[in-house]
Amino acid sequence: MADPTPAAEALLAAFDAVQLAEMHAAASARIKRVRALHRREYDACAWCSTNDRHVPWPCPTAAVLDGQEQPGA
Question: What residues contact residue 51 under an 8 Å CB cut-off, 6+ apart?
Answer without folding.
Answer: none
